């Protein structure tokens, strides 16, 4: 029974561990405390029920009862008996909480605050999983199945939060599951009897059985494959792997994910999309407005040390009333109403919808879309933008510079100002800003001073291939190098305006692009853009786009933020709102279009411009085939090299003994030349090795217990019966080898290479065609040698690993406890 | 009687001389024992290896005849002891008797004081008498009444015993068996040889017509030659591997002794020399394994129940033991690596 209790406790703990991914959803940790209480109640109820040796159904009843008591205590309605015994009112309260949770799920973006309905649902869910896991593990002894309810918990954050579910909680959950499996298995084996190693030794509790080593190795290999194979397959590096790789979520677009409206690193997504060589249509927008400003979908207004970050939006349903700024008219602000239809392609996948600023009414959008009036973005926690088509009314505000100049500085204690002027302390930027705004009195003049600073005259230029990032150091680098793209321009301008004490943020969206037919603009991933928005008192957020116009197809400038680089005389329309035609890079009067094209899109430029540049594919195939052939030929080449080396007379290891001069009997000196015995030995060994390799190649038996003489005799007797010459030759080889190995002096002066050739020829004649082919193409002797080398290496590794493990196991607490208990 | 030291005997003989001398002895014996060249050569090898020979076979196959033929072929002192249950140790070693003329005890040498001692039916004598041979076989000396007498060289005990009729016999103790270098079985002659035997032995006993073709001096020189035969390190390693394998074989209760290793190598030298080589091959050891090893080993009860004789066990060992290679492990062997010189068996755990 103690094993059951132990297993029950492990099941409860594993459930709690499996709940770890929920930490990604909640802002605070209240849910965990409640989960612990609920799971403890379930486990205690189960343990009590088992103490009475009740049947399984009674255990389930007890667990459900424990769960109910715990929930009652945690979420009281006020009418309970003794605070834990539920009354009908309690269940009514539960139903209310459940209903409320549906509403909360819809309205709250992650990370959610603690609300009673959500906490209740969480506690109920975890409690239910705890009951299931307990029943499956302890009652039915099927702990592997218990992984399913645990996985259900993990699927919750995945569902709301695909982009960047952190890997650590998942690992914690998985560890809990493994713990459960291991505990169950150890219990099973112990019930079976003594654990043994196979060599007659018992295994202690703390030791892993060597018999399971194969299983462990298989598991490790399987795990490694499961992790590595998806990494190797392109297009599968999303989700967990993607966040492991890049450390941040992927953005939008084809391979992107329907992320949550917040938390997506729009900067990363932006640069990723702009750098893609493939052009994909993302949005088609039709508007009644003549010269619309940019379509926008996101805002980054939280400036931290690592740069601008996107906050989770907050808002109400788009179907309700939206604020309509056109109702309050102001002098100097021209507001016009327009209607636009947006069609999102299947390639744009995010939880934000691209809209024009200040929408007033939406049609065709379901209940799951919300509008954040502060950020002016439309978001959802459940749906994504893929394939959406919607229509909306919006207000376009145009400001005269004078009106903006009239705006007063915001009061310093305004929360908006306090929040949106925070900048990390970078003294160089601060000094530059102070320098720029010196003498400027109005807010607008200050902003213009900073805005005008990003001009070509000051050396700023556009290039896509720069480091992305908006942290302090990166902004500083940009200001120094003066090369960047929309991301840096927008972020730097916002940063500096903030440093000037004026709220600013970075907006994301699409420029107007270069493909226009009638009222319809087709926007691609290359039209993705970022710009700056500055808050003016009484007016609201006003866009400023500091990026050089030649870098942005469909760039639009306004009266209050004219193109700083445009020569006054050549662009008469500069200074009036909206001049996309002029700003279009290809129409830029004083720029070389080719250069711009190249800078814009190196991939497309070279690809479409020069057909010859498109490299044919076949060399790759040919190279691949050649590589394959070469790899296949390696064993044969190796065999050939071996044979050649053995065929050559061995290099003289030692110099030949100087001729010794003997006085012969009759007085005439007889000169004897001493042959080098080492060399003769090496020759004999080489010939013998070659013979053995030949035997292996021709699939003849090689026996390590046989002496050379016995092998030679056997060959002469069995394989070379017909060929007496070969029989003599093989005996000669055997004799040479045995002399080389065992005698004082080796056999010298025998034609070993010739004998070897004879034997090889006779053996080849005897073998069938298939054997001969294999012996030539994939010689078994080489393959076997390699196989043995691999096996030896791996067994050596395993042995040393075993030694290491044994040494480490000496410090295993379980062993220490076991030995103490034994004493 | 003074003897030459081994230095005086000298080293390697010229090849022809050794061949002539050894072949003469073998040919001489073969006049009596037909068709048993291998056995005869082995017996001679044991003599040249300074060992002792145990011939074990059923009655009537020529055990005694072989012993006597070997003895007669060499012109040296030969003594024959018929072991009977009432034989006393002093009959073997010798005894001191009181000489009334000199008023002193005088040592009367026993039967072992000869170059060749033929012990017939050795297992018929009591263990007490059998043990009398222990000292003289190993140490080549006899100690009687505290006085030690050296025996001559060559000294060889050729004993016969009958494995079938065990009634009234005393099986040789382990210590005694270990002193015999080799145990050979005669085996029945093949039909042709038996036919020839009928022709030859019909009229006259060929043994009586046998004349010595060699003498003790020549044998000493042959022994000196054998001592100089080269043994490569790999062969030594193989001998050790073989002996170690018997100690670790699961079928054997008692393995071979270090003395056995020595004797085996010595016999292998003699075999190699008789084969005309001046170096030992593993083949020699393989051929000698059963005669040299088998009679010293004691199989386990299980092996006995399974009717596995020590001969079969040793033959199996030889078949399974890989040759030690002077170089790296041969990559062609599909067997698992057994380490350096380790026997391919699981070590026995008590």
Provide structural commentary.
Chain B: This is ATPase. The complex is a heterodimer of chains A (823) and B (350). Chain A folds into six domains: 2-193, no CATH class; 203-247; 266-404, no CATH class; 408-506 and 531-610, C8orf32 fold, CATH 3.10.620; 639-650 and 674-778, no CATH class; 783-822. With 823 residues, chain A is α+β, with helices and mostly antiparallel strands. In chain A, the strands form six sheets. Chain A has a six-stranded antiparallel β-sheet. A four-stranded antiparallel β-sheet of chain A has the order 2-14-17-18. A four-stranded antiparallel β-sheet of chain A has the order 5-9-10-7, with no helix packed on it. Chain A contains 27 helices and 20 strands. The model of chain A is unreliable at 236-263, 568-613 and 652-674 (pLDDT under 50). The longest helix of chain A is centred in the last third of the chain and has 30 residues, at 618-647. In chain B, the strands form five sheets. In chain B, strands 3-6-9-1-10 form a five-stranded parallel β-sheet. A two-stranded parallel sheet of chain B has the order 2-11. Chain B starts with 5 loop residues before the first helix and ends in a 30-residue tail after the last helix. Chain B is globular, with a radius of gyration of 21 Å. In chain B, a hairpin with a 2-residue loop joins strand 7 and strand 8 (147-150). Chain B has two domains: 9-85 and 117-122 and 153-228, 3-Layer(aba) Sandwich (Rossmann fold), CATH 3.40.50.300; 229-327, Magnesium chelatase subunit I, C-Terminal domain (Helicase, Ruva Protein, domain 3, Orthogonal Bundle). Chain B has helices at 6-9, 15-30, 37-48, 63-73, 89-93, 127-139, 174-179, 191-203, 206-209, 216-227, 233-248, 258-274, 282-293, 301-305, 310-320; strands at 53-56, 74-75, 78-82, 94-99, 104-109, 116-120, 141-144, 147-150, 156-161, 182-184, 214-215, 252-254, 298-299. The A-B interface holds A 199-200, 685, 692-693, 695-696, 702, 704-707, 709-710, 738-739, 741-744, 781, 784-785, 788-789, 792, 795 and B 230, 232, 234-235, 277-283, 286, 318-323, 326-327, 330-333, 335, 337, 346, 349.
């Amino acid at each position: 029974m103690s094993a059951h209790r132990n297993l029950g406790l492990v099941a409860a703990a594993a459930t709690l561990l499996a709940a770890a991914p929920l930490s990604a959803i909640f802002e605070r940790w209240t849910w965990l405390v409640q989960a612990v209480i609920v799971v403890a109640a379930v486990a205690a109820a189960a343990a009590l029920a088992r103490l009475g040796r009740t049947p399984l159904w009674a255990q389930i009843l007890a667990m459900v009862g424990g769960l109910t008591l715990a929930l009652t205590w945690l979420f009281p309605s006020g009418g309970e008996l003794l605070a834990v015994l539920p009354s009908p009112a309690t269940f009514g309260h539960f139903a209310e909480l459940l209903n409320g949770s549906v509403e909360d799920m819809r309205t709250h973006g992650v990370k959610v605050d603690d609300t009673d309905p959500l906490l209740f649902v969480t506690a109920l869910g975890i409690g239910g999983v705890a009951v299931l896991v307990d029943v499956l593990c302890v009652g039915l002894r099927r702990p592997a199945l218990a992984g399913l309810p645990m996985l259900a918990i993990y699927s919750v954050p995945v569902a709301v939060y695909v982009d960047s579910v952190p890997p650590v909680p998942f690992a914690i959950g998985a560890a809990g599951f493994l713990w459960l499996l291991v505990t169950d298995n150890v219990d099973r084996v112990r019930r079976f009897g003594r654990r043994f190693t196979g060599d007659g030794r018992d295994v202690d509790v703390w030791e892993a059985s060597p018999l399971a080593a194969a299983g462990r190795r298989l598991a490790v290999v399987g795990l490694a494959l499961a992790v590595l194979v998806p990494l190797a397959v392109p297009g599968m590096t999303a989700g967990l792997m993607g966040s492991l790789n890049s450390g941040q979520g992927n953005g939008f677009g084809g391979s992107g994910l329907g992320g949550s409206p917040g938390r997506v690193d729009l900067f990363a997504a932006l640069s990723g999309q702009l750098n893609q060589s493939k052009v994909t249509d993302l949005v088609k927008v039709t508007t009644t407005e003549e010269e619309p400003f940019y379509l926008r979908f996101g805002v980054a207004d939280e400036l931290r040390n690592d740069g601008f970050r996107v906050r989770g939006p907050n808002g109400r349903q788009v179907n309700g009333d939206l604020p309509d700024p056109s109702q309050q008219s102001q002098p100097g602000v021209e507001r016009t109403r327009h209607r636009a239809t947006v069609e999102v392609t299947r390639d744009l996948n995010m939880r934000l919808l691209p809209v024009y600023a200040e929408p007033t009414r939406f049609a065709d959008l379901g209940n799951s879309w919300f509008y954040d009036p502060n950020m002016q973005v439309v978001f959802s926690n459940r749906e994504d933008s893929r394939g959406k088509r919607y229509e909306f009314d919006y207000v376009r505000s145009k400001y005269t510079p004078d009106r903006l100049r009239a705006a007063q500085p915001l009061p310093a204690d305004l929360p908006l100002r306090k929040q949106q002027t925070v900048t990390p302390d970078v003294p160089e930027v601060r000094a530059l800003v102070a320098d720029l705004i010196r003498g400027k009195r109005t807010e607008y003049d200050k902003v213009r001073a900073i805005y005008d600073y990003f001009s070509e005259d000051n050396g700023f230029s556009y290039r896509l291939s720069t480091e992305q990032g908006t942290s302090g150091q990166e902004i500083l680098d940009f200001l120094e190098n003066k090369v960047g793209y929309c991301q840096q321009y927008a972020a730097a301008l916002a940063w500096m305006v903030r440093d000037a004490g004026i709220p600013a943020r970075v907006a994301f969206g699409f420029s107007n692009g270069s493909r226009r037919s009638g009222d319809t603009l087709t926007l691609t991933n290359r039209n993705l853009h970022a710009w700056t928005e500055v808050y003016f008192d009484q007016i609201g957020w006003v866009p400023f786009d500091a990026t050089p116009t030649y870098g942005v197809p469909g760039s639009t400038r306004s009266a209050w933020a004219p193109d700083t680089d445009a020569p006054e005389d050549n662009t008469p329309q500069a200074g009036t709102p909206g001049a996309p035609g002029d700003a279009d890079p290809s129409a830029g009067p004083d720029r070389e279009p080719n250069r711009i094209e190249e800078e814009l899109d190196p991939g497309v430029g070279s690809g479409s411009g020069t057909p010859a540049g498109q490299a044919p594919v076949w060399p790759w195939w040919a190279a691949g085939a050649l590589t394959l052939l070469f790899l296949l030929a390696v064993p044969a080449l190796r065999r050939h090299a071996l044979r050649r080396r053995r065929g050559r007379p061995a290099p003289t290891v030692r110099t030949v003994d100087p001729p010794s001069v003997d006085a012969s009997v009759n007085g005439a000196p007889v000169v004897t030349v001493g042959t080098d015995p080492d060399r003769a030995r090496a020759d004999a060994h080489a010939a013998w090795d070659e013979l053995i390799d030949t035997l292996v190649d021709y699939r003849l038996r090689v026996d390590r217990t046989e002496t050379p003489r016995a092998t030679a005799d056997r060959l002469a007797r069995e394989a070379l019966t017909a060929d007496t010459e070969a029989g003599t030759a093989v005996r000669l080889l055997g004799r040479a080898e045995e002399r080389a190995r065992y005698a004082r002096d080796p056999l010298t002066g025998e034609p070993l290479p010739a004998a070897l050739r004879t034997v090889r020829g006779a053996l080849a004649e005897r073998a069938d065609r298939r054997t001969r082919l294999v012996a030539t193409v994939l010689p078994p002797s080489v393959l076997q040698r390699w196989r043995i080398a691999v096996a030896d290496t791996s067994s050596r590794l395993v042995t040393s690993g075993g030694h290491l493990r044994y040494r480490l196991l000496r410090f295993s607490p379980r062993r220490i406890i076991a030995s103490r208990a034994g004493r | 009687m003074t003897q030459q030291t081994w230095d005086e005997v000298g080293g390697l003989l010229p090849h022809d001389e050794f061949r002539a001398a050894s072949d003469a002895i073998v040919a001489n014996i073969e006049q009596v024992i037909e068709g048993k060249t291998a056995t005869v050569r082995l017996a001679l090898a044991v003599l040249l290896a300074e060992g002792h020979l145990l011939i074990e076979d059923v009655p009537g196959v020529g055990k005694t005849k072989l012993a006597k033929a070997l003895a007669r072929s060499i012109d040296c002192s030969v003594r024959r002891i018929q072991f009977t249950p009432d034989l006393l140790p002093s009959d073997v070693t010798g005894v001191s008797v009181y000489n009334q003329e000199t008023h002193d005890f005088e040592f009367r040498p026993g039967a072992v004081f000869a170059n060749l001692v033929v012990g017939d039916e050795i297992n018929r004598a009591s263990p007490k008498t059998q043990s009398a041979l222990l000292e003289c076989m190993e140490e080549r000396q006899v100690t009687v009444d505290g006085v030690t007498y050296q025996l001559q060289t060559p000294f060889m005990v050729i004993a016969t015993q009958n494995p079938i009729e065990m009634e009234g016999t005393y099986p040789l103790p382990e210590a005694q068996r270990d002193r015999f270098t080799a145990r050979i079985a005669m085996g029945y002659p093949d039909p042709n040889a038996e036919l020839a035997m009928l022709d030859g032995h019909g009229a006259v006993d060929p043994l009586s017509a046998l004349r010595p073709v060699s003498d003790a001096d020549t044998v000493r020189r042959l022994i000196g030659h054998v001592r100089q035969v080269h043994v490569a390190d790999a062969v030594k390693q193989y001998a050790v591997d073989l002996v170690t394998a018997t100690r670790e074989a699961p079928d054997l209760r008692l393995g071979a002794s270090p003395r056995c290793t020595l004797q085996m190598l010595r016999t292998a030298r003699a075999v190699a020399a008789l084969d005309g080589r001046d170096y030992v091959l593993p083949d020699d050891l393989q051929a000698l394994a059963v005669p040299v090893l088998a009679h010293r080993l004691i199989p386990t009860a299980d092996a006995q129940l399974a009717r596995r004789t020590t001969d079969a066990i040793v033959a199996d060992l030889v078949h399974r033991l890989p040759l030690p290679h002077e170089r790296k492990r041969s990559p062609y062997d599909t067997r698992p690596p057994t380490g350096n010189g380790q026997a391919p068996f699981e070590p026995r755990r008590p």
